Amino acid sequence: EDAILAFAKDIVGSALPCQADASQSSLEPSSMSFSEDSSDELLKVAVMQAFDSEGRRATNGGDRVTAKWQASPSGNNECEVKIGDKGNGRYEIRARPRELGEYKLQVFIYSEAIPDTVTFFYKKGQTFDALECNPDLQLSQNSRVATFGNTGSDHYAIVLGSAGMSQGRHSWKVTIHPKGYDWQAVGVSSKPLTSWISCESGSQSFRTTGGDTFVSSGAQAASTFPAISPGDTLQLQLDCDAHTLCITNERTDATASITDLPDKEYFAYVNMYGRGSVVEIK
Fold first, then answer.
1. pTM score of the predicted model
2. Where is 240: in which H helix or E strand?
3. CB-based burial of residue 202 (10 Å sphere; 0-12 exposed, 13-18 middle, 19+ buried)?
4. What confidence tens digit (pLDDT) does each residue in 158-197 have?
5. Kind and range of the H or E element at 8?
6. How far is CA 105 from CA 44, 124, 138, 198, in A?
7. What burial letters (b/e) apply to 267-277, b meaning 16+ CB within 10 Å?
8. Helix or strand or coil: residue 269?
């Protein structure tokens, strides 16, 4: 089939009408990294948008689209890959990594490579750090769930993620369980960090003694970040090399970014408020 199409293209001097052209088409990455918790799933890593030889967006499917993976320099990483034809000129690429590491995706249309590539990281999932956890919080489920105890008074209680992030790109999710108050905050923070916190309405960050903290919050929602409520799940994407943090509320689709993060090592950050509050990280 590829040889016939290539021969026809040579004859007419351009791609066939309505046929996708690799040199014009593009890839849109879905995420920069994925957790090993998703190893039983086919991960949606990218969407390809097809264009014809004149640069017109394709509106039909049916093109022969294939993909291959380039292993990272440190290992022989392989992926099971499936491509879904959406029938509207868009093709969804899903993969199931076999081991932790870096993966680079190259997509072909009729055996010709499109210019874009996608690199993503398959990594260990985020967990909370028992050594950076307020004593009123209990960690469970392999340190992925933090629960505010039901005794004592309501107050703020901070917990950090266990993995420091100073290079590359990182992605994780935080779910605010339906129990609890609006006063929760999710984001990243540098160290050192104390349990004391200062919060100003309308500011883009909570400032903690000795550290820089950038969060999406509830009752004191920052105008630059999406507000969150109990039951919401937030997707966080930190690019240490580009100094950017993007937070998206999956319920509302609200998203916003900080583009000038200081050059520091950051940790996943959750500031919980009130007895009975439950937060999960993954």
1. 0.58
2. none
3. exposed
4. 889 988 888 777 888 899 888 767 667 888 888 766 433 3
5. helix 2-12
6. 12, 20, 40, 44
7. bbbbbbbbbeb
8. strand
